Amino acid sequence: MNSLNIIYRSLLCSKNIVKPKVIRFIQTSSYLLQSVEEQVAQQKKRNEEVQDMPELVRDFLDPAEFFRQIKSIGIDFFCGVPDSLLKDFCAYVTKNVPKEQHIITVNEGAAVGLAAGYHLATGKPAMVYLQNSGLGNIVNPIMSLATPGVYSMPMLLLIGWRGEPGKRDEPQHRIQGPATPGILAAQGIPFQPLPDYHDGAEQALQTAKRYMETAHGPYALLVKRQTFLPYKLPKISMDDQFELTREGAMQYVVNGLHQRDVVVGTTGMLSRELYEYRQSRGDGHERDFLTVGSMGHASSIALGIALQKSERQVFCMDGDGAILMHMGVLATIAASGPKNFKHIVINNGTHDSVGGQPTVAMDHEKFSLSQIAKGCGYKEVMVATKKEEIDKCMQIIRQTTGPVLLEIKVKTGHRKNLGRPTRSTTENKKDFMHFLQLS
Question: What are the DSSP calls for 245-262, one per residue?
Answer without folding.
Answer: -HHHHHHHHHHT--TT-E
